[in-house]
Design brief:
The protein has 283 residues and is of the alpha/beta class. The protein has 3 domains: 100 residues, 4-hydroxy-3-methylbut-2-enyl diphosphate reductase, catalytic domain (Cobalt-precorrin-4 Transmethylase, domain 1, 3-Layer(aba) Sandwich); 81 residues, Rossmann fold, CATH 3.40.50; 94 residues, Cobalt-precorrin-4 Transmethylase, domain 1 (3-Layer(aba) Sandwich), CATH 3.40.1010. Helices cover 42% and strands 18% of the residues. The longest helix has 18 residues. The termini are close together.
Length: 283
């Protein structure tokens, strides 16, 4: 059986950078805290916890403490509150996400109503909208476009969550352009996401089976799986090698493997080895 691993499988630059910053910060003599998880992957979260970084849900007195800002970023209010309470800030926000923050602020300063194409409950989107003085409109899917509100906007500045599906974002953008007089659009889907999505538009057509590795909480992994499933019904989304079923490989001559941007190399290797073992038993 042929096993094909995607070139883009696994950590993106922003995730790798955030983890390195976290582990380096953990070696300081100060207690380190984080609001939520550094990225959306259970194995990475365990690694960070073992390093001594503690996850918190609300602030207390921050004197002598470090607050680590996660890869997804945070709102201005969160940052200001932490500083006021005495926390020292270590910022592990992905530089590409920080660029979206800057673009959104500049658009707002130039008089544009901000629209974010993205998942309303996602940490990155909350961080983007939390940069603004006015309330942004967040649109996650075509059927949720608030047309009445949209038609009343004179000029809109549009940004996109960095891990969104480009094709679906384009469909939303087309409707917005048809209903708003002036639109300024910035395609802020990051390069690693585009690379992953370009690969996953080809691999399911070239392989009998597709295995997508990543946490069920990972937005970018979900997008990869959805694209793969639409092209190849024998697409499977797993978080670890324990979830692989040998029945998936029946009559398969080739298996394609890819992984979300928060999936560690060790998990990818374990899945690849498990598939190799299962394939050898079937021969």
């Amino acid at each position: 059986m042929e096993i094909n691993l995607a070139i883009s499988a696994g950590f993106c630059f922003g995730v790798r950078r955030a983890i390195n910053i976290a582990l380096k910060t953990a070696k300081t003599n100060k207690p380190v805290f984080m609001l939520g998880d550094i990225v959306h992957n259970e194995e990475v979260v365990k690694q960070i916890q073992k390093s001594g970084i503690k996850k918190i849900y609300r602030f207390s007195c921050g004197d002598g403490k470090i607050l680590l800002i996660r890869a997804h970023g945070c709102s201005k209010n969160t940052l200001q509150k932490a500083k006021k309470l005495g926390y020292t800030i270590t910022d592990a926000t992905c530089p590409m996400v920080k660029e979206i923050h800057a673009i959104a602020r500049e658009l707002e300063n130039n008089g544009f109503k901000i629209i974010v194409i993205g998942d309303k409950s996602h940490d990155e989107v909350k961080g983007i909208t939390g940069q603004l003085r006015t309330k942004a409109i967040v649109i996650d899917k075509l059927e949720n476009i608030p047309l009445k509100k949209i038609k009343s906007i004179r000029q809109a500045g549009i940004v996109v969550q960095s891990t969104q599906n480009l094709d679906k974002a384009q469909e939303i953008l087309d409707i917005l352009r048809n209903n708003i007089q002036k639109v300024k659009f910035h395609n802020t889907i990051c390069k690693p996401t585009r690379m992953k999505q370009n690969e996953i538009k080809i691999m399911p057509l070239e392989n009998d089976v597709m295995v997508i590795i990543g946490s069920k909480t990972s937005a970018n992994t979900k997008r990869i799986y959805e694209i793969s499933k639409s092209l190849n019904r024998r697409s499977y989304w797993i978080n670890s090698s324990n979830e692989i079923s040998k029945n998936w490989l029946d009559k398969a001559k080739s298996v394609g493997i890819t992984a979300g941007a928060s999936t560690p190399e060790s998990t990818i290797q374990a899945v690849t080895q498990k598939i190799k073992d299962l394939a050898s038993r079937k021969q």
